[in-house]
Amino acid sequence: MDNNFKREVLLHHNKTPHNRVDSTFDDKSYIKKSGINPSCGDQLTMYIKFDGEEISDIKHDGDGCTMCCASASISTDEVKGKTKNEAINKIENFDKYIKGQECEVDLFEDAIIFEDAKDFPNRYKCFNLAWSTIEEVVRESNE
Amino acid sequence: MDTKSIRDQFSIFNNNKDLVYLDSSATSLTPDKVVKAMDKYYYEYNSNIGRSSNEFALIAQKEVDNARKKIANFFSVDENNIIFGPSTTISINNIARSLSNIMKPDKNIVVTDQEHHSNFLPWLKLSQEFDLELRIAKSNENIIEAKDVAKLVDENTVVISIHHMSNVIGNIIDFQEVAKNKQNAFLIIDGAQSAPHMKVDFNNIDAFIISGHKMYGPTGININYLSDEIQEELEPFNFGGGMVIPSSVNDNSFLVKKGIDKFEAGTLPIAEIIGLSLSIDFINDVGIENIEKHVLSLKEYFLNNYEKIKDLVTIYNKDIKNNLITFNINSINVHDAVSNSIINDISFSTFNIALREGQLCNNITVNNVLGQKAIIRASFGIYNTTEDVAKLINAIEKIASVEDIRS
């Protein structure tokens, strides 16, 4: 994959994040959950709205490094409109992808640009924070 | 200071020519003679101590006894007040837990808002468990002085547990001033950050806790100075071999030994104690006053030469004389500054500069005192040079210019 393309996509999501709200967002129809990276203090909050089995809308806010924020923006695009099972499947595959493990790459849209994430294991939590937070919300919604 | 002859004693510099190691407050590097002494134990006289009486055991026992004596001499205290433990964290936990007899609901414990988690959480837990008040001395413009601690102490204070030098910004408390007003309390000092480069005085205090691996020694070993008074009050840290009078053990009772043995149940980290002994030799050879002078001079060098990056950084501890530069590069997340990522190949890692970023096991100071999410800390040791500091300044300038990671 072309490096300039990856850079362009990452910077786009970093500078103009999709589905981002500010911390005053208080719509009670969304389930809210925060994720924190204790080693650097990066903190994200994900807001997820379900319509039955479907993630009908998702938003996020927070503060983090470029990788963390870009990944958060991309994660929202990736799971919006997906069923809970589809979202979980995609999140599990993303986790494998950023660890360099075999996975279903065809599932990804912009998340495809994280192909080099495996080379930065010390940034794993940065790439994964939003996704793991979404996963927690979805799994908890099934309980 | 002839730093070349010092660096020659650390093979890690020979094996990593471009290494700029600015993380000594996390773990100091280890001189070859420390490693060799531990090797020698394993290669030549590997054995347990205080148990078997074979020849090797006697050699090892002598080495451990000598190490304790040497450490006691270094700190000008009696060897019976030097207790070995596995780490500062575990030892503070042991002390806290073993003081539970004096934790009563009408009593209180005094700490500060700049304590490392290891000197905060054990006391918070104890205060919750025994329903007593935890009094937290607050920083004033990032500084805590002895008087800020002393004013919280009253006749019901059972423990004052404070840093000598804090780990985030390096605030220094004159704990001898605190000792003057400690009333009935045990005064416990977390000395992990100060002991490697400051001469310390254990008079009038009850405990001083030090990490071996921050004293140019190995990991897995720490030094605890415990006064006679606190030794008397403390319950044994652990129960098992070595701490009990063997003939006294029966089905329903046993007698605990007095003194050091009471706190050193089980097999000690023998190799690490022998290594630590050599790290004390290393410090003695250089001179603790010379180490202090050297690390302070490096901070001064930074402050005299950072004009070109002045507007690019926020420094949180300019006015404190210590071995730390605690800072942020303005508008750049600490992770982006410290390590490379998919879109950034210019970070401290690029320049082989090792330092610490994040909350440093002390989010109270980082979040509440400094009002930051995270910080970067460069810490100097005896092997650092002005060239290292110049490289730090240059790296900050380069990282600050990376547009892609600016928020």
Question: How would you portray this structure in words?
Answer:
The complex is a heterodimer of chains A (143) and B (407). Helix content of chain A is 43%, strand content 19%. Chain A has 4 helices and 3 strands. Chain A has helices spanning 3-15, 66-79, 84-99, 124-141, and strands at residues 31-37, 42-51, 54-63. Chain A has a 3-stranded antiparallel sheet with strand order 1-2-3. In chain A, α1 (3-15) packs across α2 (66-79), α2 packs parallel to α4 (124-141) and α3 runs antiparallel to α4. In chain B, β3 (108-112), α6 (121-129) and β4 (133-137) form a beta-alpha-beta unit. In chain B, α11 runs parallel beside α14. The longest helix of chain B is centred in the N-terminal third of the chain and has 20 residues, at 55-74. Chain B is globular, with a radius of gyration of 22 Å. The two termini of chain B are 41 Å apart. The interface between A and B is medium-sized, with 24 and 22 residues.
List the helices and strands and how they pair.
The complex is a heterodimer of chains A (143) and B (407).
Chain A lengths: L2 H13 L15 E7 L4 E10 L2 E10 L2 H14 L4 H16 L24 H18 L2
Antiparallel strand pairs in A: 1-2, 2-3
Helix pairs in contact in A: 1-2, 2-4, 3-4
Chain B lengths: L2 H5 L3 H5 L4 E2 L10 H13 L10 H20 L7 E4 L2 H11 L9 E5 L8 H9 L3 E5 L8 H5 L6 E7 L11 H6 L5 E5 L16 E5 L10 E5 L1 H6 L36 H17 L1 H18 L7 E3 L8 E6 L4 H5 L14 E2 L1 E3 L4 H7 L5 E5 L6 H15 L7
Helix pairs in contact in B: 3-10, 4-10, 11-14
Helix-strand pattern of chain A: HEEEHHH
Shape of chain B: globular
Termini of chain A, distance in Å?
40 Å
Number of DSSP E strands of chain A: 3
